[in-house]
Design a protein that fits this description.
The chain is 55% helix and 6% strand. By secondary structure, it is mainly alpha-helical. It has a four-stranded antiparallel beta sheet. The longest helix is centred in the last third of the chain and has 37 residues, at 278-314. The two termini are 21 Å apart.
């Protein structure tokens, strides 16, 4: 009974960090267990005994029912509505027993990182990238998906032991082929004039993975966009295509969960024993269902806008696609959050239903699952320094 009570006392946010899935959580304690200290991602070994996590921090204005894309674009400098935290358990062997969290964009982050891990935001030493730079790069990706982090580090020519990336070579190659196939028609159409020989097309496609190539700058400048924006645009373009692929795998599960939440099938089997709380539970079910619907709708809007812009471009109208590229960064971050939230919901649902194929839960189990879904889909998650 003591273990059960301990698990029930875990905060919803900590549950999300521990059990929300690999898009929102990177458990370096488990990942680095078999990696020698000198080959681990961070030089500060304390960081290698932590759990990195992503959490949403959308602006309040996005809740007014308006267009979330338009709201995000009005923010200065293109805000990143998903942030990165570091959870440091008091006991690495029992991370659910509590710990402290450090948020990378908090005002006192540098002081806390120096105090907790002994790292400072200084220049690289002997050509070796510092831990702060590595953390900053991770914070520039909307989720902790291994493929996106791996390509981000490769683009910067930073070597990381491949055991850190929980992705097989086969899946990595498949994703690269899919992204290339999605982008290639646009490159071919853009170069259909004098530059359109096979060698130059191949160089432009290579720029997908190496935005430092001259061709990357040439491509975006053809759309009237500054060459200096090439890295940002190509990263967002790759990421958008990755999330589109990931969505194909996760959307069916999300729709099953949504259909279940809208049916009588989700009512707990012992609801009669909890009559005083029935109305409250039904309201929570409705709230979570709406959050899930909103997330799916935002994804559909982003991908539909992409298809519209793509079709217009292929039909000789480049303006919509140019406008899409100009705003792709904010769309990429929102899409990353939405797909990660769905992935987390599907992961939590699978974990809960593993031994319940009928999907018939008891009151306490349903309450816990709703609480987990709520946190996974919440766009303004509260920061907590300790769990």
């Amino acid at each position: 009974m003591r273990a059960r009570k301990k698990m029930d006392s875990v905060s919803p946010v900590l549950e999300q960090i521990l059990y929300g899935g690999s898009s929102v959580s990177m458990n370096l304690i488990a990942i680095t267990r078999e990696i020698p200290e000198d080959q681990r991602m961070f030089k500060a070994q304390g960081l290698n005994s932590a759990i990195l996590f992503k959490y949403p921090s959308f602006d309040d204005r996005a809740d007014d029912g308006g267009d979330p894309i338009a709201e995000d674009e009005e923010l200065e400098g293109g805000e990143r509505p998903v942030e990165t935290g570091i959870y440091v358990p008091h006991n690495a062997k029992a991370p659910d027993a509590g710990g402290v969290a450090i948020y990378l964009r908090a005002r006192n982050a540098s002081a806390l990182l120096e105090e907790q891990f002994g790292i400072t935001n200084g220049p690289q030493e002997n050509g070796v990238i510092g831990d702060m730079k590595m953390l900053s790069m991770i914070d520039d990706v909307p989720s902790l998906d291994a493929f996106l982090l791996k390509t981000c580090f490769e683009a910067e020519k930073i070597n990381v032991d491949p055991r850190h990336w929980l992705i097989s070579n086969e899946e990595d190659h498949q994703l690269r082929r899919l992204i290339r196939a999605r982008i290639e028609p646009i490159v071919r159409k853009a170069l259909s004039g004098s530059q359109g020989n096979a060698q130059s097309i191949e160089r432009f496609l290579e720029a997908i993975w190496n935005p430092n190539l001259e061709e990357a700058g040439l491509f975006v400048s053809a759309f009237g966009i500054e060459r200096s924006e090439a890295d940002t645009i190509f990263s967002a373009w790759k990421g958008t295509t990755f999330y589109e692929y990931q969505l194909r795998r996760i959307a069916p599960r999300a729709r099953i969960i949504l259909t279940w939440l809208k049916s009588r099938e989700c009512i707990p089997v012992d609801i009669r024993m909890h009559k005083p709380y029935e109305t409250q539970l039904l309201m929570h079910i409705e709230k979570v269902g709406k959050l899930l619907e909103t997330t799916l709708l935002d994804i559909r809007t982003i991908l539909s806008d992409y298809e519209t812009a793509f079709s217009a471009f292929m039909n000789g109208q480049p303006e919509p696609f140019r406008d899409y590229l100009r705003s792709i960064r904010s769309r990429y971050w929102l899409l990353g959050y939405c797909v990660s939230a769905l992935t987390s919901v599907a992961h939590l649902d699978a974990r809960c239903m593993k031994n319940t194929p009928s999907r018939k839960l008891y009151f306490e189990g349903m309450q816990k699952l709703l609480r987990q879904f709520d946190v996974a889909l919440d766009r303004r998650r509260e920061q907590k320094g300790a769990f």
